[in-house]
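We examine the record.

___
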Amino acid sequence: MSPKTSHLAGCPECDALQHVPALSAGAAAHCVRCGAELFRFQPASLDRALAFQVAAAVLFVSANAHPLMELDARGMQTTTTLFGTAVALHEHGMDSVALLVLATTIIVPAWLPAAFRIEYAVRPWAMLDVFMLGALISLVKLTQIATVYTGTGLYALGLYIMLRATAMQAYEPHEIWRRVAALRPGGIPPVEGEART
């Protein structure tokens, strides 16, 4: 980033290129053209987001390792996991749905932070909350025909969704690029109120 462009930001809504103002803690920068929020200066947002993401990663592993629920219908017992759901859909000839479930419940949420730009583009497709809602509706409906036990995986998945949402709320993407620019030779100075790293 050259010194002439290091303090510029593009609006995600209208693509207007504008200078980044110096912000105090908790303040937000808005687009001069459309008024959309460009970013919000949240001190230590990366540290908080990382803490929530680490906790969420532990729960994500647990949600994939333990059964979501167990179904007991007249003595026939069956359990399933997130991956098992995709496999069952594939075995019943619903390959496209199986691939969608696999991608939105396991692959996309498990991507590493190195893929920030890709993750930002595909975030609307990581629909674990929709999957969780469907699982809960199925749980209620199935209780009419069988005994259903919720598994550890379902609780871990619910907690994972809440921690992931909290991490995304704490995360400020602009801070990543500001830190990257500051690490380069002749990097930009920190924003007002931000500690030097």
Observations:
- The first helix runs from residue 45 to 65.
